[in-house]
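Today's session is about reading a structure prediction critically. Students often jump straight to the picture, but the first step is always the sequence itself: look for stretches that repeat, for charged clusters, for runs of hydrophobic residues. Only then move on to the predicted structure, which in these notes is written as discrete structure tokens rather than atom positions. Here is the chain we will use throughout the hour.
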Amino acid sequence: MKKRWMTVVLVVLLLFGWAQYSPMILGIATGYTAKQLCSTHFVAELPDDFIWDKDVYPRMAVMGPLRSFLSYEVDEKAQAVSSSLLGNVSTARYLGATGCTLNATAANAFVEPRPNAQPVPDVSVPAELESLYQAAFSEPEGGGRNTLALLVMHKGQLIAERYAGPVTNATPMQAWSMNKSLMATWVGMQAKAGLIDPTLRVKPRLVELDPQSASDFSELSPDLTLLHFMAMSTGLDFEEKYTPGDDVTRMLYLADVAWKVPASTPHKDAPGNQFRYSSGDTNVVSYLWQSTLDLPYWAWIDTHFSQPLALDDLTAEADVSGIQIGSSYLYMTPRDWLKVGEFWRSSLAGNASLLPDGWMSFVTTPQASSKRQEYGLGFWLNNQGVAFPDAPHSLFYAGGNSGQFVVVLPEQELVVVRLGLSKVNEGMNAFLSGLVDYIESQG
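Below is the predicted structure for this chain, in token form.
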């Protein structure tokens, strides 16, 4: 009798837990599916089955047997993708120049986009680099590397590129967290214009910008500055594990105003003490940066960044409130990513005019909060070979989920772009090491 009673209690608790948390879990699954497929269908113009097979369905393995009930539908007329799972439906709409927005409303206006870039002949891989390229595109036992693009620039010249179909040199590719390095760049540009101060005290500025939400920011330390958010040393108790229901998935797939999720989070420790990776921190930076613009964010990027760098195809996506998701949602062609990497390299060398003097050195210097010296301000570092043990320790890079990299090697005057859908080791350490050996052998 006691055993039966315990079983009943356990079943009741499980049902209560499912009733309480299932909307969040299902909403994240359908939100990710709708958003990814909308962006890859309408922005990247990649085949739906390719993204479903290589990206969406493998990621949904965390759902267990529920994954088999997940579905999606593309509505060409409405320019939207909907996803459903056990009655929960999420919809992402294509809004032109601002890409796709999850749960978009009538207030999210369509902005006429530039035409997508068109493929041009590839620059062939030198024979001396062929074995490195073959290794980079090869699949280990069990697969999962999925290298889609690999480009090398030396002294400002593209010297090698290769792609795996259906990707071409004109396919807009997702940044994921490489967007964070762009955000650090755009903050620098506004700092040069005198429109933002990196030492800005964040709490009073948020209250000034959004007084109706002042109570939401009550637990923020008054000592927090913009630099703390750029260094990911805010001390906020923001959970980034990419499991159903954690802070980052809730922020990206359930919240209409992404930056408010971290800004409403209590502290775990004092600002400046510890580097703790947080996409939430960057989305607060994005909100503060965007508050300084005198144009819509997409028009500012096009006027002040894309045109000066001669970029062909940049799409930066926003949440429902219209704030660019600076942690994760941006698409550029592989060659445009290479141009951005060269801009970072030349800026570090003092050859660019868009950033304050010394800005690239500033953002690629390890912060005291980064105990392993692996992070600056929006950029990853390779001090003591922490990321790539066989590559130069002086390199820095923008890195994104699933093996997205723009790697800058200042001493060798190299920029490497690697894009993919990797679930296993992407092979960058070996590629960078071999590439440096090749360049140095050329004198």
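Discussion point for the tutorial: The longest helix spans residues 2-43.
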